[in-house]
């Protein structure tokens, strides 16, 4: 073999070895993603709810994430086919008046590929002499169940069974997202009672993941310690989709960690999320402290929202698109 041929052979061999090593390293370092059931948001349930005649008697269409089908009538919804997803879409029945609210809808991302579209809206309910309210509704999705029919606007978290059983320790929550924040949009509070208020500051979209270790006492009270935390607020519109975004999960007491924000802290008792106890009663989950960083969780809370403040606050038209939600290992 001539010298030039030997050099070319050595070069090719060296290139193959380097490529093989790089491929091997990449394979070892590659993240493993476990997607939540129906987390690609390609399958939706359509609910056609006839509103009361005093409200006009129109059909209000609501959407839920689950096996594709259509449900007719003013019926309370419970998650179908093991879907872990609930939304801020609700069927309400207040003083005998039936109404639907819809701030989360399926959207087409590309041919044959859907996503979830979450928008902050003003839900109006007007019936002369009976009811006249305007309520800010932030489109949101969470792991758990919405308890229907909703009968009032008081204590909104008491209408939600928040979180699902979960014992793993992922390093991040991953998802695709797109965000549109209206230019000069006002930050509004309106719960349906009293005057609307313009709040200071700009509203943001939010994504959170909490890992909790829960237990129940003999009286049916549920307590929890925070095992893992990931929470972020997005305050800038995106030009297009941000794919495979990873929200890191920090374990144990994170109050001294770099990047810690006050909104990542423990859930205050007056804003506790709810869950069903062993007797089937919906009760507050009292988060009483930070757990050991090596603790094993019992439940996971995941929520995405087109707002980041208290209930009944938001910027009308703020829209968050979400797709492909899973945990990273």
Rg from C-alpha positions? 24 Å
Low-confidence stretches: 13-28
Separation of the first and last Cα atoms: 50 Å
Structural class of the secondary structure composition?
A: mainly beta
Order of helices and strands: HEEEEEEEEEEEEEEEEEEEEEEEEE
Round the mean pLDDT to the nearest integer and report it.
Answer: 90
Domains counted in the coordinates: how many? 1
Helical coverage, percent range: under 10%
Major β-sheet profile:
10 strands, mixed
Describe this structure in words.
The protein has 329 residues and is mainly beta. The protein has one domain: Jelly Rolls. The protein is built from one helix and 25 strands. The protein has one helix at residues 3-29, and strands at 33-35, 44-50, 59-65, 69-72, 85-87, 90-94, 97-101, 104-110, 113-127, 131-138, 140-146, 160-162, 164-165, 172-180, 188-189, 197-198, 205-216, 222-234, 242-248, 250-251, 274-276, 282-290, 299-305, 313-314, 319-328. The strands form five sheets. Strands 5, 11, 12, 13, 17, 18, 20, 21, 22 and 23 form a ten-stranded mixed β-sheet that branches. Strands 1, 8, 9, 10, 14, 19 and 25 form a seven-stranded antiparallel β-sheet that branches. It has a three-stranded mixed β-sheet with strand order 3-2-4, with no helix packed on it. The protein is globular and about 55 Å long.
